[in-house]
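Please study the protein below:
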Amino acid sequence: MSRRNRNPVTARRGPSLNLILTAVVVVLAVAVLGGVLLTNRSAADGTSAALRPPGSHTLSQSTDDKVTVVEFLDFQCPACVAYHTNITRQLEQDYQDRFTFVPRHFPLDMHPLAVPAARAAEAAGRQGRYREMHHALYDGFDSWAVTEDGRSTSADLARATAAFERFASQVGLDLDRFRADLSSPKVQAAIDQGRADGRRLGVTSTPTFFVNGVRFQPQATSIADIDRELRALIDRELAG
């Protein structure tokens, strides 16, 4: 009885070429998908950090952070004070902390007192009074941001500084500490970070708003209609 010789290569034949190719395709697909998801998550995380880095001030704070509105602003910007007077301050009152409102500094080069005003707000924040100074700077806009005749943008730093110190007293700050903090590197760093984050997000003008990470681009031109658009967007996010 003869024994058939077996080819050792044939006897140990592995997976077929088709199976190998299929496995390679699957592995590549998983890698690509994983890369896309990781990239998207990294982009989302980067946007979130640029919008609201640790230690950001808030004008209102919800308990669940379901809706977050971020405003890049310039305290000497006429459009910003118009928004404050006619839209955002009333939003804070009407929504009673139902959304989180995060202000970020984006002083424009065309406004010579924008950085000193931002320093005043940040210095007040170091004593827990950012919100109060934020409102005081806008409410007292005509006393420091424009010339005494009201016709143009002011560059009078001495007059502005006197106004800032007056606001500081009104909101209950320690004036000596306030004056020291005005020149603090940490205060300037917060302003610089706001500018850098805004540029990263494509901000070129003020005010610029983001609602839950999406830039608010109103279609209306009047303040009243823009107010309605912003409220409608916030309401949709709250209901979602």
